[in-house]
Amino acid sequence: MNFVQPIPTLQRDGNAAVILDQTLLPHRVATCRLETLEAVAAAIRDMQVRGAPLIGATAAFGVAIALRTDAGDARLAEALEVLGKTRPTAVNLHWALARMRTCLQALPAEARHQAAWLEAEAICRDDARTCAAIGDHGLALLHEIATRRGGKPVRVMTHCNAGWVATLGAGTALAPVYQAHAAGVPVHVWVSETRPRNQGLLTEWELREAGVPHTYLTDNAAGILVARGEVDIVITGADRVAANGDSANKVGTYLKALAANDNQVPFYIAAPMSTVDFDCPGGEAIPIEDRGPAEVLSVSGLDATGQPGTIRLAPDGVAAVNPAFDVTPARLITGIITELGVCAPGRLIGWKPRSA
Length: 356
Known about the structure:
Number of strands: 16
Mean pLDDT: 95
CATH superfamily of the largest domain: Translation initiation factor eif-2b, domain 2
Low-confidence stretches: none
Shape: globular
CATH class of the largest domain: Alpha Beta
Number of domains: 2
Structural class: alpha/beta
CATH architecture of the largest domain: 3-Layer(aba) Sandwich
Largest sheet: 7 strands, mixed
Oligomer: single chain
Number of helices: 10
Strand order of the largest sheet: 6-5-4-7-10-15-16
């Protein structure tokens, strides 16, 4: 499938980056121009850009932006450090920064700025191709289920947003869905809300715009749908996959994996090989971001007049915890869909690049 993003999530504009501001979705579609290293770091930290592949590519743009007037060793090191501290869990951030470092550190300062832009844009093109390959491999799984169901829709459950909004292409977990829809394979997607940031609303918006049948549900409703036999397959993205196949994704993913395992429903992770951290032996070593209680204690949306606003859900003084991710053990994962194919979690090490 030759997928073209309806709206670019990240693009170059001279010596600046233009991003699709995800904090405004799905109620408003707007872009934001980032002209400084600090602006790029804030956009990543404040979740104007979300999704592991997109975070990595945006960070690469941030390096290029930082080197516009000063491409010396100190400035390069500063840019890598500032961007590297923005989000701890998504390994694509650090993968992209390491790729930029490898590309730039051996070059003379006067050659670095142009080289940085070329490498950052190459990362974007690579991700688009990767998403397409993930879609191809995942489509085969959906085709198999469709055949067994005799033409009835394949009922796919997902969690968080792992579509085109989170990448530079068709997405990761949603790429097979888009492939199936384009190929005439009937699909229906169960979209969980993904509290507290409600990234499920981004998935709902994407699917609605694409005409893919879907239903939005509360996070806690997922288990009963799986138990009732209303889910054929669960596919989610990942922010970091350990060498043994343990996978970190948006908090709530682990609960879906438990429900799927208890009801013999296949559970797949869809992620590029750049999300696999071969230096991380297992899930216990994956850093889990804590975003603080504010996101849990309030909710943002539109009021009755259509104006954006934030409503506090709990009284002052209520204690809350807000881990942004959880880890699904490899034993609960049926397979991992990458651009190289689908494999059991424990076999990822066989695909380890020589340079990793």
